[in-house]
Amino acid sequence: MSNDTQPPVNLFAAQQDVLRERLLFLLATLHPVLRADVVRALEEEGKLLAKPRADAVAVRPDGSWALLTMLVAQHIDPDIDLLCVSSVAIAIECFVCALDLLDDVEDEDQTPSIQVLGVARALNVATALMMLAQQAISSLSQQAVPPGRILSLLDTLQASALNAAAGQHRDLLAEKRSAQELTLEECIEIAASKAGALMRLACRLGALCAEADDVMSEHFSELGELLGIAHQLDNDAHDLYYLLQSETSAVPPTKAENITRSIKTDLVRQKKTLPVVLAARVNSSLQKATAPVDKEEHLRALHEGIITTWGICLLYRERAGDRLRMIEDQRSLAPALRFLLDL
Amino acid sequence: MEERQIQEFVHRVSNDEALRKEFASDPEGVIMREGFSPRVTQVVMRLLPHLSLGHSLRFSPARWWL
């Protein structure tokens, strides 16, 4: 599974400072009551404004979406203007935060932000964050960035938003279908249009911002999409794995796992994640061959679904590694970007 | 399609004890017979400990992006 070693020092401190400064500058334009709630959402664990926690298990740096865009841009153009790249990077941070809030509302997840804001305010904050994402990119006009490039960045953001919305819609509709109806290919398509599209966007915006050529932009876009799919499948495999562990083992999950996982309701809502769909197909074939499937066989099918999903996750990581090698044919990645990509 | 290859191989190893034992004792031989690409070979070698342990899983925590 993924390398879980942590860097000895914060490799991202300088970039995080620049990004936070730019984000707070952008937020200063908001009405104070709205700003307070937007900041609350951006203080969620892993977000750019998250407060340092003594007991935190730092699985990823705060503001990792914005960092990804920024570090991709700096890989392509190490001398890129920080104000320009931070504006674009802030756009992805706001955009992903908005989608996360919408996702939490749609999935009825009781995350800390939803508990504090409630559904109505959370939806309004999501709307504001979407607008802020666009405003962050539009603000490039004050930095003498050519209008054509600004339009291209906005177009990329909007196309990705529509793609992610379509993916989310398919995912919501899939909840109403039986797991046996869905296929491996459909599950991967949904993962590609959700998580894949977001990481693709983060990488592509960085490449476009740094004026990468078409080939390099596409390499980074593909790298992002493949990694996004891999991370989604990894999440799906782990969610089901921990659920089974909690139901079949006397050993409770660690505190950190509890914090991260206990509020996830995907499985309770019978989301048709890939391991669930694969297990349903195994169960279906067992049912055809024998009497009704007993609990032991059902658990074995779920375990098989988890291993297969993890294997396909590894396959996407291998493919991402291939793209990374193409990128590194021109220049090696900086340690911070390599660590962030987790490859 | 590599995804299908992995799905089909995991299914067979999970449900065929003889293949599971052979894979545990001679993974290179099984992989050569299956004709896997280098990429799929990398994947199934990572799955080997999980598959050869039957259905016992040992995941280490991943870094979560999503």
Helix content of chain A: over 70%
- The number of strands of chain A is 0
The major pleated sheet of chain B works out as: none
Largest beta sheet of chain A, briefly? none
Approximate shape of chain B: globular
**Structural class given helices, strands, pairing of chain B?**
mainly alpha
Number of domains of chain B: 1
Report the order of strands and helices of chain A.
HHHHHHHHHHHH
What is the number of beta strands of chain B? 0
What is the end-to-end distance of chain B? 26 Å
The residue-averaged pLDDT of chain B reads: 84
Task: Explain what the structure shows.
The complex is a heterodimer of chains A (343) and B (66). By secondary structure, chain A is mainly alpha-helical. Helix content of chain A is 71%, strand content 0%. Chain A is built from twelve helices and no strands. In chain A, α1 packs across α4, α7 packs across α8 and α8 packs antiparallel against α11. Chain A is globular, with a radius of gyration of 21 Å. By secondary structure, chain B is mostly helical. Chain B has one domain. Chain B is globular, with a radius of gyration of 12 Å. Chain B starts with a helix and ends in a 14-residue tail after the last helix. The C terminus of chain B is likely disordered. The chains are: A mainly alpha (343), B mainly alpha (66).
